[in-house]
Design goal:
Number of strands: 6
Strand order of the largest sheet: 1-2-3-4
Strand content: 5-15%
Shape: globular
Number of helices: 6
Largest sheet: 4 strands, parallel
Structural class: alpha/beta
């Protein structure tokens, strides 16, 4: 239904090919991109370039790679530029906002950014439970559930809450940067 001109994928789980199940999921996701008659320009982290190119995952298509490095240095950043290093990010929303700012958007609307992902970790059960109540708005595929549960099993509430605090801190830094540069971020 949605026919985007750009497709951003930055979550390491989308590029993890540790096992056959993960590789199948990667192949399926890229198959959908390749079959799109709209051929969106894809935006990926630079570190996945070898995986994308060696696996011929998105051949002859336009891809923009970004590199993040370092921190926000107390929230100060002079320039968000995809041709240079971007500051750290905790989730895809941070990168999406930076990309939109780089593209020149002056008003950025956030819809569906409810920030409940840490509740999934909080509700994680050692016996492999998966609480769909706090997951994505769409039903997770079984293979993705397994990947998520594997990632969450290495976490705990302390790690989840530290990540959440860092996430909101980066949102504040992006808002400050946007205000200095005439960009309004609106949380719907």
């Amino acid at each position: 239904t949605i026919k985007p001109s750009f497709h951003l994928m930055a979550d390491p789980l989308n590029f993890s090919s540790e096992d056959t199940s993960s590789q199948t999921l990667i192949d399926e996701r890229f198959s959908v991109l390749r079959s799109s008659k709209f051929e969106p320009t894809c935006i990926f982290p630079l570190k996945v370039k070898p995986l994308v190119e060696e696996g011929d995952l998105y051949p002859d298509k336009k891809i923009i790679y970004f590199m993040n490095y370092g921190n926000w240095r107390n929230g100060e950043i002079r320039d968000i530029n995809l041709q240079k290093f971007l500051p750290e990010y905790v989730n895809i929303i941070h990168i999406a906002i930076m990309v939109a700012m780089y593209m020149g958007f002056k008003k950025i609307y956030l819809m569906g950014v409810d920030m409940t992902s840490f509740l999934v970790n909080y509700e994680y059960k050692d016996e492999g439970g998966f609480n769909q109540q706090y997951a994505h708005f769409y039903k997770e595929e079984e293979r993705m559930k397994k990947l998520l549960l594997k990632a969450w099993s290495k976490s705990n509430n302390e790690i989840a809450l530290k990540n959440m605090a860092q996430c909101f801190e980066i949102f504040r830094f992006l808002k400050t940067y946007g205000e200095r540069n005439g960009v309004e971020i609106v949380n719907l």
